[in-house]
């Protein structure tokens, strides 16, 4: 992992992409996460248009897959400046993501990691992300709040997340940002069983027992999606 100029969690995610046969997608996600806060913009006179454009990229499984959608659609336009303008996306940020991606691909090839694309395999992509970021897990509690699994810290899905109104039982977040609350940014839904597969040294089955099977409001604790 020392070969990669990224944090250890991201490096582990990239390495897992080889095991789960989706290394191309993981490299794209890593590049987009590196510049994530600077991708979309909201002109004051076009806030509704900008928010609608952003929602068009939303993926049912969460934000990492939404970022993948953004990059792949931009790539399909041959990296068009006009497309970025029409979708309220920062062209400079996307160009930087492309540069980072090229660097990461070069590094992965240097350590002989096979670059395989499997864009429809949503579960394997999320398993790879979980392999890297297994520390960053939260579970929906009966009160409707999320609690981090290891430290029982109360956290909230960021309003910009595609999962903000969805409330999956188990989520993985890229980072925590404190403003008025402790917000989880860049969130995906996961299956708690994946944690025993990718991090058996860190999690024990007992702490992953799903207490959300007890009575909860119908809109909460939706089962993990596998689209």
Automatic annotation (TrEMBL):
InterPro entries: DEAD-box_helicase_OB_fold, Helicase-assoc_dom, P-loop_NTPase. It comes from the Eukaryota. GO terms for cellular component: catalytic step 2 spliceosome. It catalyses: ATP + H2O = ADP + phosphate + H(+). Pfam families: HA2_C, OB_NTP_bind. This is Helicase-associated domain-containing protein. The lineage of its organism: Eukaryota, Metazoa, Ecdysozoa, Arthropoda, Hexapoda. PANTHER family: ATP-DEPENDENT RNA HELICASE (PTHR18934), PRE-MRNA-SPLICING FACTOR ATP-DEPENDENT RNA HELICASE DHX16 (PTHR18934:SF83). Residues 1-68 form the Helicase-associated domain.
